[in-house]
């Protein structure tokens, strides 16, 4: 699926739609260059999960946990130098637990990511406004069939 976001608010709104539908155990991988909107999409996902806390990128802590309709485990692996580093924090317990895992910069630890997942790629695009984003969503695994109903 492909979506076009004209501004931060539309990116957050798309995240909110996805967040309102996700289920326990879902794994969402988000990739895109710096400043593409990964954390804004995650903020929307958190709103959809009924999380009232302020969402920040866990760049220096690797993972932030939030309580909502479901637990949210928000990973940012941009600064991870070795996949063993993320395994040592109990990565498997998080992603195979009862919460929803969001992994920013997932391609950096691709070998640790399960085959069944949601892959979201965000691209900055040229348009009339500098904030246009093309957001591609791919679903890997039968468990994610329910998300194919998302409309912009």
Poorly predicted tracts of residues? none
What name is given to the CATH topology? Rossmann fold
- Spatial shape: globular
Number of helices: 4
Summarize the main sheet: 7 strands, mixed
Compute the number of strand runs.
Answer: 7
Give the full name of the CATH homologous superfamily.
P-loop containing nucleotide triphosphate hydrolases
Which CATH class? Alpha Beta
Work out the strand percent: 25-35%
Name of the CATH architecture: 3-Layer(aba) Sandwich
Instruction: Please estimate the helix content.
Output: 10-25%
What is the string of SSEs from the N terminus onward?
EHEHEEHHEEE
SSE order and pairing:
Blueprint: E1 2-5, H1 8-21, E2 27-32, H2 38-48, E3 63-66, E4 72-76, H3 83-87, H4 91-95, E5 100-104, E6 117-124, E7 133-140
Parallel strand pairs: 2-5, 2-6, 4-5
Antiparallel strand pairs: 1-7, 3-4, 6-7
Helix pairs in contact: 1-2
